[in-house]
Fold this protein.
Amino acid sequence: MELYRPISGEEYRAIEERGFQGFPKRTEGQQILTVLLSQDGAMEIARRLRVEKQKDNKVYVVSFLVEDSYIRQFPVQYREKPEYSALWIPAEETEILNQHIIGKIRLVTSYMIDREDCDVFFA
């Protein structure tokens, strides 16, 4: 299954340090890793993403393939729009998720953000 995630520049650099082969461990207070089923939804969220403590004003959308047999265990979380449908991966599962990624995490797009227009927090 192909999944998408809008991320901060900090998280992008952490993924880059891992050779685009996995997501970094969640920080304290981040109990889930949210991944979206829709590229359009991830791109829309990225354009509205509020990122705290960021050195640059850039957000990224990445995609990755993950083994269906693994990812099916996580129920789809439906939001106000169908394109916001997501899977919530518990923080303690991040390294296990990484082991089930097929190939590398790929950059879909990036956006410069205007902090005044940002209104979405994303785990």
User: Anything to note?
Assistant: The chain has one domain: 2-85+93-116. Helices lie at 9-17, 39-47, 68-71, 94-99.
